[in-house]
Design the sequence.
RNA sequence: GAGUCGCUAGCUCAGUCGGUAGAGCAACUGCCUUUUAAGCAGUGGGUCCGGAGUUCAAUUCUCCGGCGACUCACCA
């Protein structure tokens, strides 16, 4: 708790003292309410006085002598309160007048309609439930327009609880996030998937190219890594005989923070035995478009000024052809690394010496292709060199059965037919180890136990990962990933 | 990690070509028994992010530092 005291806080603390002297407990243990605010309004009947009790936070107050209006807010919405001295008694009315914006109160009374036509609660009994001693940002609202909106982004992230109180969009966006996640669970469980939990602390961090966080287990005296992906554990479960599994939880990557990156982020990963990357495309299309239809009421949405149509089928285009289309470079007809480097440099893309041909192609893709991929598209057939866990194409082993989904210029998903050949997988790991030894600290580590698992036989399978935070960004039309994470990582405030 | 911008009352923001600051809302006092960004009258409230330097004088100028936003780099 902050020890910062200003006059406004002091005044409210003094009110608490006054309440206590009058025998009013400013923090009572419980209050039984009969209705949520929105529900209470639904009880209105002409010429009747339906009794309700509600509880919530006082968000506005208009005292007009011996009568007052206020708005009470709970999670369901807001309801206006009407308090009259003659109906509740002087002492109780004085308490009402002394309330501050932000106080949490219980209200018992009857539902009626004001002259202005707003269904309200006529207060008969007021109970203080929690005194708010810190002043809230004084956001006001008329016809859905906010005045003096709480705008300090730093404060909104650091004190998300305040942001949630005063910024309706923040509340709505996180409810949307919850619905998306719930919707995904339903979608997958209805298809026979089971949800599993695999280690977040791993001795060998695998399944992605990223720098991990390191932690230490004291009793075993070993270093452990926070997982960068659950992939290798989920595929061990395919070996074990679970045929449809998913995990929807956090990954941790020790990398930069940006509008699109938070060190801990939420990923859906799913794996299905006897399926392949084509199956994953169908699941992605169906799941995302169904969620949009259900939660947004439309498969079209506006994201940062662009109209995006999520209705299936989504466009499909190969990695190589997209690069050719947007950069003019045809990597399929380029034989040497030097030639690839010259081609990239000719369009202003740097290609450091240790990069291979397809890594250079990856750079060109990021630079020239990604920003153009506004409508949903499956980018297919990645080079094997960039895909150490994907199964090679049978007709062209230099490429793999893999796709990434791009929407609004962002990678939303990565999926492939899973590499289940232990010999091939071991060779790919060895290749990664060489890159690692050459200084690529994002190359993957050898995982002999994973190879061991594959040696028992993993059924052919399709798998997919979907970045949840980014998908939520799309659905709630926000430019920063921080607006989809309740408590994004910020540097601690120095004192 | 680099660059740009920002940090002034509880909140949203003005402002000071260097002479220690102002508005609206919020708060306090008074009036007001159907208001709703309520209204009217009055009052209080600030180490102007921190430190150092220049100066008679720094919130303002310079430098260093802190935190944030955005862009870039890394990445999903």
Sequence:
């Amino acid at each position: 708790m902050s020890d910062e005291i200003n006059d406004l806080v002091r005044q409210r603390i003094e009110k608490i003292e006054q309440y206590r002297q009058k025998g009013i407990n400013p923090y009572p243990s419980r209050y039984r309410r009969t209705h949520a605010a929105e529900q209470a309004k639904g009880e209105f009947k002409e010429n009747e006085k339906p009794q309700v009790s509600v509880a919530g936070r006082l968000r506005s107050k208009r005292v007009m002598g011996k009568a007052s209006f206020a708005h009470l807010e709970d999670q369901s919405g807001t309801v206006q309160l009407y308090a009259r001295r003659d109906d509740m008694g002087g002492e109780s009315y004085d308490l009402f007048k002394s309330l501050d914006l932000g106080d949490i109160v219980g209200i018992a009374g009857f539902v009626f309609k004001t002259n202005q036509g707003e269904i309200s609660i006529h207060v008969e009994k007021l109970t203080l439930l929690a005194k708010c001693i810190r002043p809230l940002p004084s956001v006001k609202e008329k016809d859905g327009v906010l005045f003096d909106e709480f705008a300090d982004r730093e404060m909104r992230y650091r004190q998300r609880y305040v942001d949630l109180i005063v910024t309706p969009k923040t509340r709505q966006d996180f409810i949307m996030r919850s619905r998306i996640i719930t919707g995904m669970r339903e979608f997958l469980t209805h298809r026979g998937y089971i949800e599993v939990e695999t280690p977040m602390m791993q001795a060998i961090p695998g399944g992605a190219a990223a720098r991990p966080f390191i932690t230490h287990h004291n009793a075993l005296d070993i270093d452990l890594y926070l997982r960068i992906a659950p992939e290798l554990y989920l595929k061990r479960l395919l070996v074990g005989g679970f045929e449809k599994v998913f995990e929807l939880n956090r990954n941790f990557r020790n990398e930069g923070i940006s509008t699109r990156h938070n060190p801990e982020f939420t990923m859906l990963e799913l794996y299905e035995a006897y399926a392949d990357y084509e199956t994953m495309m169908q699941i992605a299309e169906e799941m995302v478009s169904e969620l949009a239809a259900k939660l947004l009421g439309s498969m079209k949405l506006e994201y940062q000024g662009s109209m995006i149509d999520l209705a299936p089928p989504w466009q499909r285009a190969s990695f190589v052809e997209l690069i050719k289309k947007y950069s003019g470079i045809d990597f399929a007809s380029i034989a040497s690394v030097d030639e690839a480097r010259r081609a990239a440099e000719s369009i202003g893309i740097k290609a450091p010496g240790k990069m291979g041909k397809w890594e250079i192609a990856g750079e060109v893709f990021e630079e020239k292709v990604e920003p153009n991929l506004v409508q949903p598209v499956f980018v297919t057939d990645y080079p094997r060199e960039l895909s150490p866990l994907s199964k090679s194409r049978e007709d062209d082993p230099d490429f793999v059965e893999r796709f990434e989904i791009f929407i609004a210029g962002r990678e939303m998903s990565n999926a492939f037919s899973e590499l289940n050949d232990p010999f091939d997988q071991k060779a790919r790991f060895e290749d990664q180890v060489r890159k690692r030894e050459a200084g690529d600290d994002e190359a993957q580590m050898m995982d002999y136990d994973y190879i061991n698992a594959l040696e028992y036989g993993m059924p052919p399978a399709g798998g997919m990962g979907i970045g949840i935070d980014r998908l939520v960004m799309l659905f709630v039309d926000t430019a920063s990933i921080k607006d989809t994470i309740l408590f994004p990582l910020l540097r601690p405030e120095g004192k």
